[in-house]
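Troubleshooting entry. The earlier prediction with magnesium ion gave an output that would not parse, so I re-checked the input for stray whitespace and re-submitted. Clean input:
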Amino acid sequence: MKRVALLGMPNTGKSTLFNRMTGGSARVGNWPGITVELLSSKILLGGDMVEIIDLPGIYDIHGFSEDEQVVRHFLHDNVPDLAIIILNATQIERQLSLLLQLRQYNLNMVVLLNMADEAKKFGISIDTAKMSASLGIPIFLLSAKYGNGYQEALQSVTKALRYSTPGMAEELRSQLEQDAHIESEMTRVLQNSVQVPMRLPDNLTTHLDHIMLHPWLGLPIFFGIMYLLFQGIFILGQPLQTGIGDLFSWLREAALTPLLSGLPAILQGLLLDGIYNGVATVAAFVPIIILFFLFMAIVEDTGYLSRAAFLMDALMAKLGLDGRSFVMLLMGFGCNVPALMGTRVMRSRSLRLLSMLVIPFSLCSARLQVFIFITAALFAPKSAALVVFSLYLFSFAAAILTALIFKRYFPNSEPFVLELPPYRFPTIRQMLLRGWHEVYHFVHRASKFIIIGVVFVWLLTHFPATATPAGPDTWAGQIGSWLHPLFKPIGITAELTIALIFGFVAKEIVIGSLAVIYGLSGHALSGALALQLDWVQAYSFMLFTLIYTPCLSTIATLQSESKNTGFTLLSLIWSLAFAWVVSFVFYQSARVLGY
Amino acid sequence: MKTNSLTENLANLVAGESALIQAIHTDDALRQRLLALGFRVGKHIEIIRKARFSGPLQVRIGTTDILLRRNEAAKIMVEKL
Ligand SMILES: Nc1nc2c(ncn2[C@@H]2O[C@H](COP(=O)(O)OP(=O)(O)O)[C@@H](O)[C@H]2O)c(=O)[nH]1
Ligand SMILES: [Mg+2]
């Protein structure tokens, strides 16, 4: 099968084009370094199946960071039949250098000048015919986001694929070093084909940045935006979640219980109290997940993340990190796994490891589900949103403290140089794609972990058969009482301990397993929790959940990204010990203060 | 060329000032990255803003805005306009 690779600098719209060509849902974001892995998809092009490959961005062909190496290895091991080179038309003046470098590899190429819509707004005019003639490569203007020029681009790609592929000439490598040559070549090509106005017109980005990056207001605005976003998710999402939870309970009473009444009691228990209760409780969170990722998609796509890096870099420098580490912490709010992988854009290994040590403290969407459920059960509706926000602050604090403690073991002097893209706004289509992608991901995880998890919990809480369900004589009860000395000082009951053990696998299971342990779901479960716990215990439980290891996938990612078992163990043990100490200090002080 | 032109490092410029890049004194890896971002000798560079607490600078070269720390900026020599 013929292979087509998408190549270009970071943040030029490669993933956007990939999605348009393949109908895929590669993650798109206005941040240089969203894509750090290869992604491929097969499509029918000109009557043949063709494999399209989305690659991480590269600044130049000898880049040193890990994501750039991914591209180099790929090009070396599988020379594509066609390389689509994507350049940002508004930055053609500098991005041409990458094209000239790549040209020396003798690849079969088509060049797409993307973001034609923005170039037009900036008053940049490009004569693609002239440019194409002076380079001897087909060149087209395109707007991958809105689709202008797409059909022509696709035709030329189909046409170019018919030609045979020249190989990659290794001996040309030495020539690549000749930057002076590239520079004069750039001037030659640009001279008669590109016109850029002397001064860019003041645009929306300039005006917005006056406010967003204001010397004194910038940081307060940042925290204000965060607060409003999470308040929004909470206020919109929580009623939806309870509503769906109630719907599931009703479905159980109205349909499932009568339907399954013929089955043996034990099987009924496993199906209804185990799997159904557990899965329904977790499934009720789907609307919150969608909402959360829609908001994330908007924030990522606006380009505000780079602004956050600008605002926070000075503080991050004091912690031995940099602005990009901070952005990865923010991305970790969605899911820690891609955030950990996002550190590949860093070249210094120490900086990468230190960032990977702090990212797991980022309050991911799975932990958010636990917090939303517990706060709704134990706190007044008015204070619930504030309680959740306080956990976000704790999440930052845990990351900061960890960096302060460990920074001396991970010293680095990595330069911080980052592109600041203009503000952009996602199209409805982009938002829907992202929302759909996350739901798919969630359901995928749910079917993998959650069902197995809740079945296990059910077995542990119902066997040996002689014991009262969920009582002290069941296996779960025994484990609980065995761990009791460890968890009693932090106010965590035996039931919650079991939930925490399963939460080690994935945080989505925590509430599901509580549903199984109590044999209740939705409102009834909240009621039972409120009877058994006071707010101090609940908060201590949430602190522990926030700080200890997020999930098995995170541990696996820590291992595969660091390739260092010692480091993975350090992260694991540190987070467990840290979680215990924080909960202990909180719980005991609250009790001493008389709460 | 102006007679009162000054050679300075980029970190010393204040927001709103412009300059021409004269030399880049960094290691090769960072040099590569800076070249790709448009830092080339003779190019016009403008300081857009500087973050508080000795934070990074925002500079503009052509149509690209770039953030860089003062440490890195100090390695770039410019001629103030
Ligand atoms: N205005 C405009 N924005 C675009 C276009 N193509 C992509 N973008 C935006 O540019 C940003 C980077 O896109 P992405 O596909 O993630 O780039 P990649 O890093 O090269 O994969 C996102 O905010 C996109 O929405 C385009 O044609 N016009
Ligand atoms: Mg991408």
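This one parsed fine. Residues 29 and 35 of chain B are 10 Å apart (CA to CA).
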